[in-house]
Specification:
Chains: A alpha/beta, B alpha/beta, C alpha/beta
Shape of chain C: globular
CATH superfamily of chain B: Dinitrogenase iron-molybdenum cofactor biosynthesis domain
Order of helices and strands of chain B: EEEHHHEHEH
Number of domains of chain B: 1
Largest sheet of chain C: 6 strands, parallel
Oligomer: heterotrimer
Number of helices of chain B: 5
CATH topology of the largest domain in chain C: Rossmann fold
Number of helices of chain C: 18
Distance between the termini of chain C: 47 Å
Helix content of chain C: 40-55%
CATH architecture of chain B: 2-Layer Sandwich
Strand order of the largest sheet of chain B: 3-2-1-4-5
Structural class of chain B: alpha/beta
CATH class of chain B: Alpha Beta
CATH class of the largest domain in chain C: Alpha Beta
Helix content of chain B: 25-40%
Strand content of chain C: 5-15%
Structural class of chain C: alpha/beta
Chain lengths: 488, 143, 449
């Protein structure tokens, strides 16, 4: 097993699981090869901007309440602090709590890159601690600090004696990995190595660690789980350090997205014996029921869960069958992280929509324990196949595909991506919220979102008629794989 | 801290072999920024690989007979060439298949695919690792 | 020395990519990590013909660090020219290549006119026809400064690598340099409004940022009679460079004109500098002032009988807005400046002059101004000051919670902005002043006392 909590530098996702970026083929190809580990990926000779891994890592950590993030680097790296401030205040207000988390930068300048700035960093950490008394401190590096050899680990180690709260170094030297979702693992690693405590003696719990993004479905999940005598503890948005320290005592860990949660889930299982619920995502009917049943199995609540499923099916299935009639025959292209692309493909299939191309931004060949991702396995087992590419958020490939396939619909989860489909005249649905397809109710809502997007095409047709897309005609005539350098 | 670098070169002067094509690897032992050739390792042949029931051909198209076998990747075994080099910190070749790169990375082995002389590559890589290990800036020094 | 950026107000120099994005059909090509573009873009208003997902980027990895990334940069530029349909390509270098020593400038020089590398004519024309597309370069590593500096770097690059001195001068043509695109919330509307005002007094404005302003406008720069810089300090060094290289003089007007008092002063000064007939300028001014004061008079009851807006205010913003708004609130609305805070890390050589500007208020009022990037200190000062009533605070989203605690009246006018959506609204000029009044009093009427 590859999880080593004593090392501050988590092996990047590419290292650990054998992820790839840059692949074109069919889904069964991708999956089949994944089982044998023979996947050929390619690197690119032209690429566009995608995402910084620190956005994922620090987006997670900075959502924890009353902590401090000290992002050591030039001002650009800590720009995320502005958005984080807004999110924290709004999300705390929504839950009815307060959040005094601070996210500061160190405005590294040219002198710092020549002479180093570990002394200043030390002083900054002490000052932040004095000002805000955070419950934990995460000190992050950046590309610039990595390149100049700043020894963040030593600074943090020395301060461990002076600072009474957990303080941990978080390594975000971006040039070391191209697959952005690594950030989630970095965040998990930081929390596991500094905050999570071994389980207390004699504590029994009905808690489930529930890893998600922005807990929009929290009230309904709490209500549902209460029926099964389970209490979900949502992470990391609005989590407290206290709460997280007791994650090792929970009955199980589950997450809203495989990519997001597999490091944490596996580590808690390996180190503390907290079972990790491995299942396809809760998207769509099959997803939701499979997931619930797996939880039932792991926590011993199967009976209660079965009666809940039966009850809910009576209410929702007829409505879903109704809307399916209007969705039949639609063709879609999907572009999302792998945790979602293959899940959403399954749901679209359930709703009778054909997926003509799926772009998974990167692809985890295997999850931590060596199995093929469950979502992939499900598709293969059920004979669902379509063209797939692993596009690493490369916009020019997405546009090329949309131009060739002219689907009825484009679905994506990442900011900046759906707008391009719309300009192409393709209706787009921004599957932003992780609960958008959660359970019966939201699957029905999702079906209607799609239907409504198709029904009223005014916005995109108006825009598409007038705007010019930024690519040359030459590019549209090329093969999508033009810029992939052949792998051996 | 000393470590090893494996180089795929036919003549010891140029990096001119891909990982797949390399019949042997020159192993250099490195101490800070000093390196010297200490051994030549021969890659296992196809026959040897077959005997171990492990697929030794990196370029093949995977077909159903292989997936029935399920004896590579899925159960953690990597190609014999990769196994052979598992005590190295870094591999340098002209070209390395993505698949191999992933297997190497699982073992925390860095790989570079470059087109230059052995000396240039070793100089750059050992300099880089030396700086990373000792927290020295990678800033280009004025010459 | 690294400093504590507590609640930061600016981005790094690579934020200059937004300056490039503001020039129609210009695209930045980043020699940086894969995530810089998305990180430095705002969530709202960053789309358009080009958006950050479109920016070509070398996505530097470990191999590029060890063996150099110039080959990759070359191939990225070469392919960007083939794939992306733009008029101007601006290569920007990030932190890593500048430290490890990639000679990006040399790579870019290979795409000079002399090489005539392939570009593809795109309007249904002959695919074998070659068209020259300019490729320029700016050194914008994050640690070189913040995005105000980065903005100046872009203009510098255009002046140094693209513009040529011209003997031709177009009468009345004036280049306008004001707000920093995307950093200043009202940049699009403000620049348009300043253009409009200049047109009214008979000048021909030229600007390179925003709707329909791109390479054609850049090509006109060298023929202008003068440069007009409306800013306390940003772009001043670009003006000096243009004076030297292109022989174009400049008029430095440090205050963004908001409201009647300052805008009339603004028009008079420009009119004088440009040799416009005084009568003509005065006619334009009178027409605007008549309408402006009609509105003020009509709403006098709002000003005088509102129970919630007290006299003292603080602005927390960059030098541009801190100065512009302070002068407006004091000289137009008769309010009293408490302490003002400038958060753009103004270079030291400009600070004295800017402080002096804050002392030039009516009735010998002098506003106390502090240059500070640490918001903790700013907030402590605001908390410590007695505003003798509800404080009026115009600042960034970070000031919202503070204002609520102090029961103040708060308006989000500087970055980061979360509380409003602005497309092309503006605060510049006569109309802009009215807009600002509307916004302030909309806040005020949310409560009675």
């Amino acid at each position: 097993m590859t999880i080593n909590l004593n090392n501050s530098n988590v092996a990047t996702r590419e290292n650990r699981i054998g992820s790839i970026t840059g692949y074109i083929g069919s889904l069964s190809d991708l999956a089949g090869k994944s089982e044998c580990g023979t996947l050929k990926g390619c690197s690119r000779c032209f690429s566009q901007s995608s995402t910084c891994l620190s956005s994922c890592a620090l987006g997670q950590l900075s959502a924890i309440r009353d902590v401090a993030i000290i992002h050591h680097g030039p001002a650009g790296c800590s720009v995320a602090s502005a958005g984080n401030y807004y999110l924290n205040k709004t999300m705390a207000k929504k839950r009815g709590v307060t959040n005094d988390t601070v996210y500061v930068g160190t405005d590294m300048n040219e002198n710092d890159t020549i002479f180093g700035s570990t002394d200043s960093l030390r002083e900054i950490i002490i000052e932040v601690n004095r000002r805000y008394s955070p419950k934990a401190i995460f000190v992050t590096s950046s590309c610039a600090t990595g390149i100049i050899g700043e020894d963040i680990d030593s600074v943090v180690d020395e301060l461990k004696d002076e600072i009474s709260v957990p303080i941990v170094a978080v390594h975000c030297e971006g040039f070391k990995s191209r697959i952005w979702a690594t950030g989630f693992d970095i965040a998990d690693h930081a929390v596991l190595s500094s905050v999570v405590q071994p389980p207390r003696e004699g504590v029994s719990s009905n808690k489930i660690n529930f890893k998600n993004f922005y807990e929009s479905a929290r009230p309904e999940i709490m209500e549902m789980f209460a029926k099964f005598d389970l209490e979900p503890v949502f992470l990391y948005c609005n989590s407290t350090v206290e709460e997280l320290s007791h994650m090792s005592e929970s009955l199980a860990t589950t997450c809203i997205c495989g990519t997001l949660g597999n490091y944490l889930g596996n580590a808690l299982e390996e180190k503390y014996g907290v079972p990790y619920v491995r299942s396809i995502n809760q998207c769509g009917i099959t997803g939701f029921e499979t997931w619930l049943r797996e939880i039932g199995k792991v926590t011993g609540r199967s009976e209660k869960i079965e009666s809940y499923i039966e009850e809910q099916r009576k209410i929702y299935m007829p409505q879903i069958e109704e809307v399916k009639k209007e969705l039949k025959g639609l063709r879609a292209v999907i572009g999302m992280g792998p945790g979602y692309t293959f899940e959403v493909s399954r749901v679209l299939n359930e709703l009778g929509i054909e997926v003509v191309w799926a772009l998974a931004w990167h692809y985890d060949k295997k999850y931590e324990n060596g199995d093929v991702p469950p979502s992939m396995k499900y598709l293969l087992d059920n004979g669902i196949d379509f063209e797939a590419s692993v596009a690493d958020q490369q916009n020019f490939e997405v546009m090329n595909i949309l131009h060739k396939y002219q689907p009825d619909l484009y679905l994506s989860r990442h900011p900046g991506s759906t707008v391009w489909a719309i300009k192409n005249g393709t209706p787009a649905v921004y599957v932003a919220d992780e609960y958008m397809i959660f359970g019966y109710k939201h699957t029905l809502e999702f079906a209607y979102s799609i239907l409504n997007s198709i029904k009223n095409r005014s916005f995109e047709q108006n825009l598409a008629k007038r705007v010019k897309l930024p690519y040359t005609d030459w590019w549209y005539k090329q093969d999508v794989g033009t810029f992939l350098e052949e792998a051996n | 801290m000393t470590y090893k670098i494996a180089v795929a070169s036919s003549d010891g002067v140029n990096i001119d072999l891909s990982f797949g094509a390399a019949g042997h690897f020159d192993i250099y032992s490195v101490d800070k920024t000093e390196y010297r050739l200490t051994e030549k390792r021969t890659a296992p042949t196809k026959e040897e690989s077959k005997a171990e029931n492990i697929c030794g051909d990196e370029k093949r198209e995977c077909n159903s007979s292989c997936s029935n076998n399920k004896s590579c990747g899925a159960d953690g075994k990597s190609f014999p060439k990769v196994e052979m080099l598992s005590d190295c910190r870094c591999i340098i070749c002209k070209k390395i298949g993505f698949n191999i790169t992933k297997q190497l990375e699982k073992k925390a082995i860095t790989s570079f695919d470059v087109d230059c002389t052995v000396e240039e590559a070793l100089k750059k890589v050992t300099d880089y690792f030396n700086k990373i290990d000792n927290h020295i800036s990678l800033r280009k020094s004025a010459e | 020395m690294a400093k504590l950026l507590d609640k930061q107000r600016y981005k790094c120099a690579l934020g200059a990519m937004q300056t490039v994005q503001a020039i129609t059909r210009a695209i930045p090509i980043l020699h940086s990590g894969p995530g810089c573009a998305q990180k430095l873009s705002d969530g709202t208003g960053s789309s358009g013909y080009f958006s950050p997902n479109i920016f070509p980027c070398t996505s530097i990895n470990e191999k590029d660090v060890v063996f150099g990334g110039v080959k990759k940069l070359h191939s990225t530029i070469e392919n960007a020219l083939k794939v992306i349909d733009a008029d101007l390509y601006v290569v920007l270098t990030g932190c890593i290549p500048e430290i490890v020593g990639d000679d990006s400038e040399e790579v870019v020089s290979q795409f000079d006119k002399a090489e005539q590398l392939e570009s593809f004519e795109n309007e249904g024309g002959d695919p074998d026809k070659f068209v020259y597309k300019p490729v320029i370069y700016a050194s914008t590593a994050g640690f070189k400064g913040n995005n105000y500096k980065g903005h100046e770097q872009i203009i510098d690059a255009i002046i140094g690598q693209y513009l040529k001195k011209s003997d031709k001068r177009q009468k009345g043509l004036v280049n306008i340099w004001a707000d920093v695109p995307y950093q200043d919330l009202f940049w699009l509307g403000n620049i348009r409004e300043i253009e409009k005002l200049l047109s009214e007094i008979g000048l021909t404005p030229n600007s390179i940022f925003g709707y329909n302003r791109g390479l054609d406008n850049i090509d006109k720069i060298a023929q202008a009679e003068f440069n007009l810089i409306v800013s306390p300090w940003v772009c001043l060094k670009n003006m000096k460079k243009m004076e030297k290289k292109l022989g174009i003089p400049y008029l430095h007007y440090p205050t963004l004109p908001i409201g009647a008092y300052e805008t009339s002063k603004f028009l008079r000064e420009i009119g004088k500098f440009a040799g416009i007939e005084q009568e003509k300028t005065e006619k334009v001014i009178k027409e605007h002032e008549d309408y402006y004061y009609y509105l003020i008079e009509r709403y006098a009851d709002l000003f005088l009988e509102n129970r919630v807006i007290n006299k003292e205010f603080s602005v927390v913003a960059d030098a541009q807005y801190a100065l512009g708004i302070t002068k407006f609130l004091a000289n137009d609305l008769g309010l009293i400046p408490a302490k003002q805070f400038i958060t753009d890390d103004t270079p030291k050589e400009f600070r004295e002059n800017i402080k002096d500007e804050f002392k030039k208020l009516n009735y010998n009022l002098q506003a106390d101004v502090e240059f500070e990037t640490d918001s903790y200190k700013i907030h402590n000062e605001i908390k410590a000051h007695d505003y003798h009533g509800y404080p009026l605070i115009l600042g960034s989203y970070y000031e919202k919670e503070l204002s609520e605690k102090l029961k103040g009246n708060y308006l989000n006018i500087s970055w980061p902005v979360q509380d409003k959506v602005v497309f092309d609204d503006f605060y510049a000029g006569y109309t802009g002043g009215i807009r600002l009044i509307e916004d302030i009093y909309t806040v005020a009427v949310q409560r009675f006392n």
